[in-house]
Specification:
Layout (H helix, E strand, L loop, with lengths): L2 H63 L7 H70 L19 H5 L8
Helix pairs in contact: 1-2
Length: 174
């Protein structure tokens, strides 16, 4: 078997392993980005809730300064609406963060699968290199290239082999 085939096989296998490791690192980065998106969303939602409370406080102060009862009537309704809209904004922020995190998690899953595929392809390419080298060695041996027997440059194992036709083990008797 050709030495170059062994080197190619080893290189293919190592490349597949390396790409798998790179994909796992990238997936870890995506996982951390997903966790960061959730944390940022929670923080921003809390900030939105604080802002809403400040707005409600300002509304109450303005109503009270004008002599309006802040807990009843239109003033109470406006404050309730402000609180509801503020909470809706906070929940929207959390939902957007969850969607962003989901995108990162899907990306991480895809990266892990790409790594597995690269590792598998490396193994298959290595096997192909070894088998190709074995085919070359067998072709050379049958055509006399390795064993000194005659036939010159010759045929391969894909059906264009004069050496196979001359070999009694492969000759068909019709």
């Amino acid at each position: 078997m050709c030495v170059s085939s062994l080197f190619n096989a080893q290189a293919s296998y190592n490349q597949g392993k390396y790409l798998d490791k790179v994909a796992k690192v990238n997936a870890g980065i995506s996982d951390r980005a997903a966790a960061d998106a959730i944390e940022r969303g929670d923080l921003q939602a809390d900030q939105q809730r604080d802002y809403t409370q400040q707005v409600i406080g300002s509304q109450r102060s303005a109503y009270a300064a004008n002599g309006i009862d802040v807990n009843t009537g239109s003033a109470g309704i406006v404050q309730n609406d402000t609180a509801a809209l503020g909470e809706l904004d906070a929940l929207t922020i959390i939902n957007n963060a969850a969607r962003e995190a989901y995108g990162y998690k899907v990306q991480a899953m895809d990266q892990r699968q790409q790594g597995k595929l690269a590792k598998y392809q490396g193994k298959m390419n290595a096997i192909g290199s070894i088998l190709g080298g074995m085919e070359q060695a067998a072709t050379m041996a049958m055509s006399g290239g390795m064993m000194g027997g005659g036939g010159g440059s010759g045929p391969n194992l894909q059906g264009q082999s004069r050496a196979l036709n001359n070999n009694p083990a492969f000759v068909r008797n019709y």
